[in-house]
Amino acid sequence: MLNPNNKINNWFIDQLNLYQSANSDFKSIKRNFIIREAEFTIITEALLNKESNDSLQHELILGRRGSGKSTLLKRIEIEITENKKLNKKYIPINLAEEQAGIYRLFDLWEQVIEELQHQFKIIENKKEFEEFTTIQDYTRHLYDVIHNTCIKYKKKIVLLLDNFDRIVENFNDDGNLLREILINYNDVEIIAGSTRMDEHFWKYDMPFYEFFRKHRLEALSREEMLLLLNHWADSLNIPELKLFIKNNTGKLENVRILTDGLPRTLQFFIQIVLQNSQSHGYDYLKKIMDHVTPLYQERLNYLPAQLRKIILEMAFIWESCTTKQLVEKTRMESKLISANLKTLVLKGIVDKIETSKKNHLYRISERFFNMWLIFTQGNPEQKRKAKCLSIFLENWYDAQDFKILANNHISLLISKKIDYENALILSKALSQSKYISLIQRDSILNLTEKINIRKEKSQLIHLPKKSSDILNEALKELENKNHKVALDLVNSLENEEDGIKFNFLGMISEDEEKNSEAEKYYLLAIKKGEKGALLNLANIYHSQKKHNEAEKYYLLAIEDEQITALCNLAILYYDQKKYKQAEKYYLLAIGKGENDVHYNLAILYYEQKKYAEAEKYYLLAIEKNNTDSDALFNLALLYQNQEKYDKAENYYLLAGENGDNEALNNLAVMYEKQEKYEKAERHYLLAIEINNDDSLFNLALLYQKQEKYKEAEKYYLLAIDKNNISALNNLAIIYEKQEKYKEAKEYFLLANKKNDNSALYNLALLYEKQENFKEAEKYYLLAIKNNNINALNNLATLFYNQNIKKRETLNLLIQNNENPQNLIIAEIWNGVLDNLENKVNSIIYKNEEDLENFIIDLLIHQQKNLVLKLFRNSNIGKTLQEKYTVLFYVCMLINNPNEENLELKIPPEIETTIKEILQLIKEKEKFYGYVK
Length: 932
Prior knowledge:
Strand order of the largest sheet: 2-3-4-1-5
Shape: elongated
Distance between the termini: 106 Å
Structural class: mainly alpha
Mean pLDDT: 81
Number of strands: 7
Largest sheet: 5 strands, parallel
CATH class of the domain at 36-219: Alpha Beta
């Protein structure tokens, strides 16, 4: 925007004495002194109004570095020098800003005497340091010289001291001596600048307690900043700067806020503006940071390591923080943090904010120092947050001005106080600004067209399209899935104030299934006040199962009287099984005239088994829309489940007539359950005629049930052509039953390729049936990889029955914990006998049924005493003997083969069975290696 090589710009930069403004010439200081006038007036008028015998009022000017203290002191010096009344009374002595050499009070008096020598050429009767035995005597002598000079010239000294806090922090007893001298003599008035309210000034036992009248230099206000910048632009004749100030309200206010409104910082800012124009105030801030880095780096390095750490963490927190927060961030003890905070407060680096509780708050006093720490010491995320804050402030203040300008222009157009030619340029600019709403845009365009009485057409300026026309075009393109065209149309709208643009961008992103982008745009739209985005955002969250967020935005949409939100919120509650809330909002939607909700409410009642209410609302849904095939179908299903078959048949037929091809299929299923096979077959065939693919499979199942394998094969093959995966597995089972093993294997493998996990298991069973154990093992293992739990147990049984792979068997059964009986037998087989009795008892006590094989296996694996204890157990032994009489005798014969008359006690009808079981146990004992 501005030429960095412009001579005027360079001249302006040369005039800015950024660090030592006190060294500027009197004329420049007076010309540029347009702020801090209130403090200047108070102090100089007090000097003017003092009589010779009045005690002097010492002044303390408090302000951060760059706030204008040095310039104010210099301006006071100039006024004393040039104002005849003041010059008659006072000698101004303005020492250099950085007084590193003043360590003791006598250093200060020596500097004053040097200045008096410079002004009056000779100072009489000054003795040398070596002539005195104590430093205090020498200090008193020096002041006597100053006192005598004041008497001789009949003037008082106004001693202007900058960085006074640095001077007095070196004083010990000298502070008390200085106070004593100033009270006892009326020669010297101190006007001091200080960056902080040192304890010397506020602590009651310190020498300067309530000794100075205080003037605090606050941050420049917006008005003061603009006054100062416009003054520089006018006085230095830089029209480019004036134009920049006018057109960049946001940038200026952003810099003012984030740099603490310091005049020196504004000088840096203007220097950068004249050299280079950036896109955001943030870019100016970064360059300002470069200029102040030497100053702040020295301040940071001056602090001990502990204090540096606390300051840095406090800067990154940014807002006022508690001691507890700093303990967490610094990993220091609470007592240490408290002590260090006290030091930082005393140094004026940190402000303490009193609260009503014990936990006070702390923040870095100089906010620009805080920002500098973030810019230079922060991580990328902290810097990003600072940038976001900067851009937000800039945009905010630009937006405020734009709104005022737009409203004023609309008023002129309505009152016709502006002609078409003059309105045209501003109408075009404003209508395409992001800071006005689409309603304002179209209002400006319509009003501008209305004042074009002659229907003139400008050759150079063309008004943009109305937003309503652009958005209608975008909607059509979106309906046709032309997403890029729709996006380009919506992005052609610059207006962002009301959020409508962001809502449309969200709709496009949502249609492209870019839900995260859609969410971002809907949130922006809502933030801008576009209520239509509430429902859209809620729907996005609903689809993502973010129930809490969806509920929140549905409720906000309901507050905005969006009726659709009532129904959608009810569906959300239904999905969460919050049936009471769902019912409430369905009924509210019905009360608002939403007829489509009757069907949803009927489903809700059906889910809760409130069949009478469900029937009522299905009938109402059918009444409101007699072609609602879903309601007809579900009502038929309701009647079917209630075994009201005639009514069910009627509504299935009506649903079929209204195009629901599932209705005939369900009707056929209903006939099949009633064992009306002919009717079932006929309606399956009717459903197949109207392309109901499910009926192909169902009809094949019907034929399979009737062992009509040829017909079943035909319809399974037709179902397979329609990609019915289950048909592959079922057809394989038919082939297996027909002993067509080759074809069975082929279709089991085809089913597996289509991700039918049961096919591998069935194929393994087929191989096991054929005693092809190697292949059976292979396919059981493949089925296990596909998470088939049954395959775990079958493969373990396969190994067990072959007496192989003991450890693998145990591992398989550990994975399948659904069969604890087999697991215990496998553990015994593997020699794992820990806590065996308790494990067996837990099985017996939990389940007294189906224990035959378990007891036999325990006997095979040499647990005869354990089994005998079970049968003689005082709690369940009698019950076991009754249920498993045969096994009880088997157990007795194994444990006591020579017991007298035992075999005679056995009832004859079970003798043969007992002998068979004993023979089986004997064979298995040999098989598993217990006997030879």
